[in-house]
Design goal:
Elements (H helix, E strand, L loop, with lengths): L2 H14 L6 E2 H12 L4 H11 L8 E2 L10 H11 L3 E2 L3 E2 L1 H4 L12
Parallel strand pairs: 1-2
Antiparallel strand pairs: 3-4
Helix pairs in contact: 1-2, 2-3
The structure holds a DNA duplex (13 and 13 nucleotides).
Length: about 110
DNA sequence: AATATGACTGTCT
DNA sequence: AAGACAGCCATAT
């Protein structure tokens, strides 16, 4: 299991998140960590910072449902376009939109 | 090898 | 509600 694999697992989880749904760094870390062992929210964040441009990164939010970092304006547009439950507080409605990522199970037949 | 850093999270003030 | 503090884990210097 290489760090490259970890990246693939994380990106896969993000891609599995359906439209109008979001997940959190911690949830991804938990799902990926199940098959990878170790890992943590920070590692997920690191992966996103480097490879996030290749996936719908706006479907990955903080534990409180607020958008990741900059581009928060862009993220808001994406949520609006996808119909993601938006809260007037300026964050995603976690109770409705939260998606629990499924562990890719190492994807090794 | 030790220290610093980061797209994190939970708890306390 | 917003900021401070402390855990956590992999990389970079």
């Amino acid at each position: 299991m290489d760090s490259e694999d970890y990246v693939e697992l994380v990106l896969t989880c993000v891609e599995r998140v359906p439209p109008a749904r979001v997940t959190t760094y911690g949830a991804i870390a938990e799902a990926v960590g199940e098959v990878y062992g170790g890992g943590g929210p920070r590692q997920v964040g690191r992966v996103m910072s480097q490879h996030g441009g290749a996936v719908p990164w706006w479907r990955v939010v903080h534990a409180d449902g607020s958008p990741p970092t900059c581009h928060d304006g862009t993220a808001r547009q994406a949520y609006l376009a996808e119909g993601t439950p938006w809260r007037p507080s300026g964050r995603v409605d976690m109770d409705t939109a939260f998606w629990r990522p499924a562990p890719p199970a190492t994807m090794a037949p």
